[in-house]
Write a structure and sequence with these properties.
α2 packs across α3 and α7 crosses α8. Among the domains are: about 240 residues, 3-Layer(aba) Sandwich (Rossmann fold), CATH 3.40.50.12780; about 100 residues, 2-Layer Sandwich (GMP Synthetase, Chain A, domain 3), CATH 3.30.300. Helices cover about 30% and strands about 25% of the residues. The longest helix has 17 residues. The protein is α/β, with parallel strands linked by helices and about 550 residues long. The strands form five sheets. Strands 2-1-11-10-12-13-14-15-16 form a nine-stranded mixed beta sheet, sandwiched between helices. Bound molecules: adenosine-5'-diphosphate.
């Protein structure tokens, strides 16, 4: 027997309509390139989004066409996040930090028809223009009309906006319609496109706004530092508007000092970004304190938040850290590490241990760990296995790539490529990416655990551990360490002594090298590919 409920399609225009109806006075604020703050209301935002949808039509964008965005986090980008899917097209967010060849490859692979470009990023984009095969129009914003460019067929966003019609009927009536396209940054292999649907993004938005997840409300002031070109800014552009939260966006002003000012001045309650951003902010706040007591959740994900940094934020700055894990393939939110009622009695240091884990699955996401034979492993907090997930906002295939067993299991789970343990109360802890584990003499050594321990040392700012080839053991760990400026020197012997408190001798790195910085990927993660090349295969290897 079938249920008798409405067939109400989960399309994203419904979020916008709700926001417009319920929260017309809520604010969207953006730090403009010149440093001033642009503010407007949800009512203005909704009206301009309709105008933008008309502009897309005028430019010849049809249902299913891919439309690229090359921009910082700003109000125009937010308008694009709604207008492109609203007219049935696919919002393809382009990572502004990719190497030119990779960016051109992605645009050609996606066959973008129109690309919207933030004027502050025009020189970076012009470098690849000659390699692009499918783009018919370029639309510039944050750009003076006198801007000279070699790009062909350039039009200006605000010119079009001034003439566009206010009325637009949202064009999607099937929730399975594609709405967004995001390529993984290729930390492992070629970039792969993940194609979200209206339905998957709507369900992700509900999932993210559960009270046990981010639980945003109209009382929140949210600062997405995570770029809108990285995994859909973790879904915040949709979950904020659904909740009616005020949104604050940094534009190009991403320095720790600028972010600290913005948090203090705008009384931000929820800020989200990768660990390197919060490392920078912590040091800024220690050097030049600001009042950031408005923050109720400092959300961090994208790579492991070092345990020491969680403790430092909570103990020294009184900031509640919410560690989250996700993947581009998961829209991206999968797990979140908030404390539960049975943790209340624990001493602080044990609470921070829990927060350093990646946490429990959101309702809507199922996870399991399996061994190399595909057998499901116990949730005992110790047994490590490959993490697999399934759920309504998780990819079932990559764009233009037939699903293969290296990513998807025969029984319908996605293989994350992460290695994890799960405690009996459901808290998942990533020990590594499959390819970053150090496999030494038949034992697995977690590079993440070593990094965390090193970064807990007061003189260490950043540490990354990689495997180096070893004739006897197969692989041995090598640590690259960046010291905290001004904290004074430390010797390799002292660091090894520090590690000996929590690691067996065979787990400790054979070599520790000091560096002035750790190379980062385009989304701010430790770039272990470069480190491996430099230290494991290069002249030092
Ligand atoms: P990529 O790094 O391949 O470009 P994503 O940005 O989608 O792609 O990253 C997903 C991966 O990032 C996860 O598989 C995991 O390895 C890592 N990751 C994300 N959040 C965390 C976290 N909180 N702790 C540890 N690793 C994380």
């Amino acid at each position: 027997m079938q249920g008798l409920m409405m067939d109400y399609q989960l399309t994203l225009d419904r979020i916008l309509k709700h926001a417009q109806r319920m929260f017309p006075h809520k604010q969207v604020s953006t730090k403009l390139p010149d440093g001033t703050l642009h503010r407007y209301t949800y009512a203005n935002f909704a009206q301009r989004t309709k105008r933008l949808a008309n502009i897309l039509r005028q430019l010849g964008v049809q249902k299913g066409d891919r439309v690229g965005t090359f921009a910082w986090n700003n109000y125009q980008h937010l308008e694009l996040y709604y207008a492109i899917p609203g007219c049935g097209a696919v919002c393809h967010t382009l990572n502004i930090r990719l190497f030119p060849d990779q960016l051109a490859w992605i645009i050609n692979h996606a066959e973008d028809k129109v690309v919207f470009i933030d004027g502050t990023l025009l020189p970076a984009f012009e470098r690849i223009a000659l390699q692009l095969n499918t783009v018919q129009h370029y639309v510039l914003f944050n750009a003076d009309r006198r801007t000279e460019t070699q790009l062909p067929n350039v039009v200006f966003y605000e010119d079009l906006m001034a003439e566009a019609d206010d009325d637009f009927s949202w064009a999607v009536d099937d929730e399975q319609t594609a709405m967004g396209l995001c390529y993984t940054s290729g930390t492992t292999g070629d970039p792969k496109g993940v194609l979200y649907s209206h339905r998957s993004m709507m369900l992700h938005t509900f999932g993210e706004n559960q009270a046990s997840a981010l639980g945003l409300t109209e009382e929140d002031v949210v600062l997405p530092v995570v770029p809108m070109f990285h995994a859909m800014a973790w879904g915040l552009p949709y979950s904020c508007t659904m909740a009616g939260a005020d949104i604050v966006m940094p534009g190009p002003h991403m320095t720790p000092a600028a972010l600290a000012d913005l948090i203090a001045e705008e009384h931000v309650t929820v800020a989200a970004g990768v660990p390197t951003i919060w490392t920078g902010l912590y040091h800024e706040l220690k050097a030049r304190p600001r009042d950031i007591s408005s923050i109720r959740a400092l959300v961090v994900g994208g790579s492991a938040m070092p345990r020491g940094l969680i403790e430092a934020y909570e103990k020294e700055l009184g900031v509640n850290v919410v560690h989250a894990w996700g993947m581009t393939e998961m829209s991206p939110l999968g797990t979140l590490s908030k404390l539960q009622s049975h943790h209340r009695h624990l001493p602080d240091h044990e609470k921070w241990d829990i927060k350093a884990r990646q946490g429990y699955a959101l309702a809507g996401v199922e996870m399991r760990i399996v061994n190399m034979d595909g057998e499901t492993l116990p949730w005992d907090g110790v047994t490590m296995g490959e993490l697999q997930v399934r759920g309504p906002w998780i990819a079932k295939s990559y764009y233009k790539v037939p699903p293969g067993p290296e990513h998807f299991t025969a029984d319908g789970w996605f293989r994350t490529g992460d290695v994890a343990t799960i405690t009996s109360d459901g808290y998942m802890c990533i020990t590594d990416r499959t390819k970053d584990l150090v496999k030494s003499g038949g034992e697995w050594i977690s590079s993440v655990a070593l990094e965390n321990a090193l970064m807990a040392h007061e003189r260490v700012m950043e540490a990354a551990v990689i495997a180096t080839p070893d004739a006897r053991w197969g692989e041995r760990p090598l640590a690259v360490v960046v010291l905290t400026p001004s904290a004074g020197a430390v010797t390799v012997a002292e660091l090894l002594e520090h590690l000996a408190q929590s690691f067996a001798k065979f787990q400790a790195p054979d070599r520790i090298v000091f560096a002035s910085e750790i190379p980062k990927t385009s989304v701010g993660k430790f770039d272990k590919k470069v480190l491996r090349h430099r230290y494991a295969e290069g002249e030092l290897g």
